Amino acid sequence: MTKPLIQLKNVTKNYGDVQALRGIDLTINEGEFFSLLGPSGCGKTTLLRTIAGFEDVSGGTVMISDKDMANVPANKRPTNMVFQSYAIFPHLSVAENVGFGLRKSQMSKVEKNAAVDQALSMVGLDGYGSRAAHALSGGQRQRVALARALILKPKVLLLDEPLSALDKKLREQMQAELRNLQRQVGITFILVTHDQEEALIMSDRIAVMFDGEIAQLADPQTLYRRPNSRQVADFIGVMNFLPATVTSVGDTVTAHVDGLGAVSLSGDQFAKDVQTGTAHVGIRPETMSILQESDTGGANVTAAVVEDRAYYGDMTYYDVRLDGGDHIITISMKNLVDRAVLERGEKTRVAWNARALVLFND
Amino acid sequence: MKSRGLMIYAVVYLLFLYAPVLLLPMFAFNDSTIIAFPLTGFTTDWFSELRNTPALHTAVKNSVFIAVISAVLATLLGICAARAATKFDFPAKRGVMGFIMLPLVLPEIIVAVSLLVVMVQVLNLPLTNWSVIAAHVLICTPFSIAILNGAFQNIDGALEEAAMDLGETRWSTFRLVTFPLVMPGIISSLLISFTISLDEFIIAFFMTGANPTMPVYIWGLLRFPSKLPAVMALGTILVVLSIALLILAEFFRRRGLRRAGLKDTGGFL
Hints:
The complex is a heterodimer of chains A (362) and B (269).
Chain A: E1 4-15, E2 18-29, E3 33-37, H1 44-52, E4 59-64, E5 67-68, E6 79-82, H2 94-98, H3 109-122, H4 138-150, E7 156-160, H5 168-185, E8 188-193, H6 196-202, E9 205-210, E10 213-218, H7 220-225, H8 230-235, E11 240-248, E12 253-257, E13 261-265, E14 277-283, E15 289-291, E16 301-311, E17 315-322, E18 328-334, E19 347-351, E20 358-361
Parallel strand pairs in A: 3-8, 3-9, 6-7, 7-8
Antiparallel strand pairs in A: 1-2, 1-4, 4-5, 9-10, 11-12, 11-14, 12-13, 14-20, 15-19, 16-17, 16-19, 17-18
Helix pairs in contact in A: 3-4
Chain B: H1 2-28, H2 45-51, H3 54-87, H4 93-101, H5 108-122, H6 129-153, H7 157-165, H8 170-199, H9 202-207, H10 214-221, H11 228-260
């Protein structure tokens, strides 16, 4: 069912002495919502632009639909792009912008107009055709850019940080709309973003990039629950790190974790090349809980002291010091009706689940 | 008190700037060959005299011809240079651009003498309107580049990429996207170059052969006091025309900006 659409083989890109891409191998499937996630300067936009054809690769091959794109310029590739600045032509009307790509098509004028109307309707801009492009709001520009790119029915839609210029509310709305639009048109979307939440919400798969390389390629849940390095774990959401000592290695790994004691970890919680010695374990704030006096907890309970707390309304974030150590970790708790919010300095107990731990070799 | 002082300063300054220009129409319509107060009476004779001076007509035709061709050539070169400077990186870019802009500050008399030597001694070419055009293109191009640089810099590079992404070639992208967006700059450049060429004297004086341009012809008239009122009349016509032209240029520029939804960044006016 999953058919490869884009195949990158050992793609490199150098700008003088700077290596923007260091050997990217990547396969993106048909109909997939794929995200390239990473901090600024990690090469994610460069990678997108090599797929679009705006950048020549320094080495390796870019294939789209099993065709080598080496000598195919941007205007001949089956890709269309939504730019970060939207790049709406300011001297043209909305309809002229959306219909820009149809200029060279064989369609009659009536067909073209119908296609433009349909594309505008798809992005919820019915009747905006005659407006001047420069009179649009940010969200409307975004929609025009989408309609303009989708009207050509590309095999791949490339989106370069398309939501970064919008305010929070509109951004969340557009995230849902983009996801729906992708399901509706069924074409491959490749999204470049530095916003890990956005990537998690929208993507089928995510490639996390650091320094010109793909650090991890996984679906959102795997990426969040089982990051393969401290760097990825740190970039995606909040992760607590505790020093640990690996004592035995095998099908399961046993380790002594500062503040938590001896733990046993199974197959997906550590890397294959794990070795005995010093390491760190990561644990997400929401996988631990602050126990109330009446709670019995489970097998794993550790005494702790509240060092600080931040009340967010729906959630409270606690910074707690685990018993017998100087490690402070963050725990997030839902504010349920009958659960009191603890104050600074209060003693409490923390329940945790060994399955939530991820081991990272030092 | 302070603002009153500034007010007086402003008025004196404006008088200093424009009072001499106001003298032009005053004496152009004055019924006397002597340029002096008091005014003696009203006449349009000097304008009639202009109409009946074929040498002047030839000079004006020369000037307009030279100015139009120079403006077009300088603007074409300016488009190429400004495009290259804003879009591409090439070896010694700063140096090259610096040398292109140099005529802006080079004393015109130096340019004029050097060009004359090149034309007559080195190339052994006759002095015609085309030699003036060559020189005027040289001095107009830096102005054109300065104006067009701004116009090209205002364009978001993503616009051109978007057009190519939508299937256009480099050339059709330029024609459909870049060119319309720099159009106000191009019009500005044409008008400024035209104006510079039209009233340029020193270089034209050196480079004209038997067919003087208008400024050179006017300078020639100054030797004959009786011709002075006619010069005043000619000046009056030129002032009115320049003002009309500038208003027109500014109108088109603002309309272009409004249509493109761009911010007005000033222009020359």
